[in-house]
Amino acid sequence: MRDGGRNDERQAAIVAKLKSAGLRTTRPRVALAHLLFGQGDRHITAEALHSEARAAGLSISQATIYNTLNQFHEAGILREVQVEKARSYFDTNISDHHHFYVEGEGRLIDIEQNAISVDKLPSSPEGFRVTGVDVVIRLTK
Amino acid sequence: MRDGGRNDERQAAIVAKLKSAGLRTTRPRVALAHLLFGQGDRHITAEALHSEARAAGLSISQATIYNTLNQFHEAGILREVQVEKARSYFDTNISDHHHFYVEGEGRLIDIEQNAISVDKLPSSPEGFRVTGVDVVIRLTK
DNA sequence: ATTTATTTTAGAATTATTCTAAAATACTTG
DNA sequence: CAAGTATTTTAGAATAATTCTAAAATAAAT
Ligand SMILES: [Mn+2]
Ligand SMILES: [Mn+2]
Ligand SMILES: [Zn+2]
Ligand SMILES: [Zn+2]
Fold first, then answer.
1. Alpha-carbon span A65 to A58, nearest angstrom
2. Taking the CB of the first residue and of the last residue of chain A, which one, N or C, has fewer CB atoms within 10 A?
3. Bridge pairing between strands A43-44 and A87-91
């Protein structure tokens, strides 16, 4: 059952992504990278990713889920978003952008950076440099 | 040792604040309110407040620290700020404003609302309303 | 004063996340 | 390829912030 090599291309793209992030291409990492990066931008928690992995028939430990998410984050191919107490979201969209956060549903929605103008930033305190600007607009029904 | 009634005034102000927030004025609540509101705007964690209380000779349980912070928050006299995984900050400044967050030090610094112009907010998804706009500027040395 | 409703508390429970150290796997070298 | 070495994965325990439980203490109402 060939497909003209389309799957091989996706596979190669994932492998290249990990390689160029300085990460070894192990089976669990490649599989999780497929779930994370294979279907457009996503915002996902560790537990949700673990469920998805199990649902996909993969047997990957919880520790590996956390290790992998943290490694991807440190390697710069995932962004960590802090919107609620006690649980991190990981964002496959690493471009500069902001978020709507739907309270109760626990859902994040991207806002393009230029949809908000964060003008005239106050100057940072002496001796510090800006490592990120996070805008979260909280929503309810 | 009189002081012209200045302490009584502060005490009365605290009591009035709790009353008008619909909260009973119990001894632990009044004592914590003094620590929280008696020395200008602050950003503090539950654990830090507990330490301060002990240092001030108060014996207040951990559960009461959490209960009180949550009640003050629900009553609208404290704001809860989510900047790092696994730990909440409570902010005695409940006006609309934003924050610098100094990573590593765990310190929050207020930014007046009009020091940043969050213009042309994108319209919220159909059926939702905005309950808050949080801007966090992360800093490092 | 008595009664009733609320609050405080010690300690246990919960939950996301990290740690540990041993087994498995990936990469390198001969 | 065959060892050897470095990295990764894993089960399960540990950690840490927060919440829960249910009983004792306190506050408000009668
Ligand atoms: Mn991280
Ligand atoms: Mn709360
Ligand atoms: Zn996003
Ligand atoms: Zn503040």
1. 12
2. N
3. antiparallel
Residue of chain B minimizing CA distance to A121: B116
Q: Could you tell me which CATH number the domain at A95-141 has?
A: 3.30.1490
Examine domains A1-94 and A95-141 and report if their fold is the same. no
pLDDT in the model for residue B122: 82
A14 by Cβ neighbours in 10 Å (0-12 / 13-18 / 19+) ranks as buried
Residue whose entry in the numeric block shows the structure tokens 């950003």: B43
Q: Give B-chain residues touching A82 at CB under 8 angstroms.
A: 82-85
**Chain C positions with a protein C-beta closer than 7 Å:** 6-11, 15-20, 25-27
Please give the residue that has the higher pLDDT: either B22 or A86: B22
The residue extents of the domains of chain B are 1-94, 95-141
Burial class (CB in 10 A: 0-12, 13-18, 19+), B44: buried
| Token pair listed for B81 | 């700020």
Q: Is B88 on the interface with A (CB under 8 A)?
A: yes
Going from the Cα of B138 to the center of ligand 4, the distance in angstroms, rounded, reads: 14
Ligand in nearest proximity to the CA of A107: 3
User: Between the CA of A121 and the C1' of C12, what is the distance in angstroms?
Assistant: 47
Q: Please identify every residue whose CB atom is under 5 Å from ligand 2, which is an ion.
A: B 70, 73
Contact B138 A130 (CB under 8 A): yes
> What's the pTM value of the predicted model, to 2 decimals?
0.90
Average pLDDT of the residues in A52-64: 97
Task: Answer whether A115 sits within 8 Å of B124, measured CB to CB.
Answer: no
- Environment class of B50 (CB within 10 Å of its CB; exposed 0-12, middle 13-18, buried 19+): buried
